[in-house]
Amino acid sequence: MRTAQLTIDPAFAIGPADRRLFGSFVEHLGRCVYGGVFEPGHPTADDHGFRADVLDMTRELGVSVVRYPGGNFVSGYRWEDGVGPVADRPRRLDLAWKTIETNAFGLHEFMTWAEQARVEPMMAVNLGTRGVQEACDLLEYANHPGGTALSDLRRKHGAERPYGVRLWCLGNELDGPWQVGHKTADEYGRLAAETARAMKLIDPSVSLVACGSSGRGMPTFASWEATVLEHTYEHVDYVSAHTYYDPSDGDRASMLASAVDMDHFINEVVATADHVAAKLRQRRKLKISFDEWNVWYQSRLQADLDQRGWVEAPALIEDTYTAVDAVVVGDLLLTLLRHADRVGVACQAQLANVIAPIRTRTGGPAWRQSIFHPFALTARYARGSVLRTEPVGPTYETKRHGEVPVLDSVAVHDEERGELTVFAVNRDSTDLELRLDLRGLPGLSAGSHLTLAAGDDPSATNTEAEPDRVTPRTITPPTVDGGRCTVRLPAISWNVLRFTTRP
Ligand code: AHR
């Protein structure tokens, strides 16, 4: 069996594991809203039409922030369509997803749902087909206490108190030619800067996200960020990053190393932001809002879109995730944690049905996809200070990412509770022996070892008929002897090793 070593020391702290790293995303896309979080008439639906089974799973998932209402959808959206009496709301063509939008679910419904789900709302404004005025109107409607036409309209619509939304995205993926209202970096940068300036006049407490590239592979990647940030740096708090990893070509070795690509992506966005900061003599470091990330069998999308005419809430991008996909998602979370000093927000895309950890049948049950589990466990146990780990171990060759380490890991130290959690991924298809040196944290004792192992059945999935086929299992707990500990990481596995100083 191959071996790897890991030294963990509380002196190597990166930063606190921000709860906002465990965000998700609800877009008006397919059945994410309609038939996902919202389904009046469903056996579990409450008076608002929210599915209780999905709400329960959202809380279990440990989601902290939810981005809304898109995505590509927001670039053609009129927020006013989604407020006021439901019977008066217009039906519209949603050009992003070739769908009929009924507007039965809008701002008020989302805010009520977010409160019940105990998540922080993160709103996006439309900078595709709209501009400064409409963004200001939405912010005034949502956050201004009262005494103006728009804030009083909100009160008339039943929300006496302002919503106080703190996080706002200045549009979505405007670098992408598929985006309704696609722009050049200069066009978007100017618009985003002016929108940001005006929004901060209305509510200086908001945090704003400028659109970075919609992917590291975009031809304009990095130059887009540089130009946009030259316009917006002083007005915004975050620059966004989006990435999806597609397993469709069957190259499992590369797919398992997707986190290596995400790591490069983050380093490159940070370098670009810091370059602009230097140029503009800005001392404040910008953070990344990684507000879309996931595994996505993207090559299936076009077929989905081509297959139909204009309908309401079609089943779109309902990927079924394998055990390997769960290991990849778990590994992407490790990367986000490892960059806790520069990534301040992250949202897995999306929450329900659409490339999602929660899957439902309209009128039927909800179940947890394989990728649900690493997210829920990381959100639960990554509490405290993220520690840098420097693994020493074997490597392997991949087509997409070159030579990569077999082991990936990150540690989180909760000093107050005397707990250490080590997250570790074995990307290899044979077991890996992991030797941990914990002498920097005296008094730690045996904890638990949870593993989501894909090696035995890599393409196993959770389905309505078999909702618990892929779940983490507990294996022989690690024992600590003289500050050292050896564990076996199963083939292709994502692992949580927990240690405590408590008896
Ligand atoms: O999450 C699905 C889509 O992916 C989003 O609408 C868009 O922003 C991205 O391209």
What would your notes on this structure say?
The chain has 503 residues and is α/β, with parallel strands linked by helices. The chain has helices at 52-61, 107-117, 132-143, 149-156, 185-202, 223-232, 252-255, 258-279, 301-306, 323-338, 372-381; strands at 2-7, 13-16, 23-25, 65-68, 92-94, 99-101, 120-125, 167-170, 207-210, 238-245, 287-295, 311-312, 343-349, 358-360, 366-368, 385-387, 395-398, 402-405, 407-414, 419-426, 432-437, 445-453, 473-475, 484-489, 493-500. Helix 3 (132-143) crosses helix 4. The mean pLDDT is 96.
Give the overall shape: globular
Distance between the termini: 33 Å
Helix content: 25-40%
Hetero groups in this structure are: alpha-L-arabinofuranose
Low-confidence stretches: none
Structural class: alpha/beta
Instruction: Could you tell me the CATH topology label of the largest domain.
Output: TIM Barrel
Number of strands: 25
Tally of DSSP helical segments: 11
Q: Give the name of the CATH architecture of the largest domain.
A: Alpha-Beta Barrel
* Overall residue-averaged pLDDT value: 96
The count of domains is: 2
Tell me the Rg in angstroms.
Answer: 23 Å
How large is the share of residues in beta strands?
25-35%
- Main beta-sheet annotation: 8 strands, parallel, barrel
Strand order in the largest sheet:
3-4-7-8-9-10-11-13
> In the CATH hierarchy, what is the class of the largest domain?
Alpha Beta
CATH H-level superfamily of the largest domain: Glycosidases
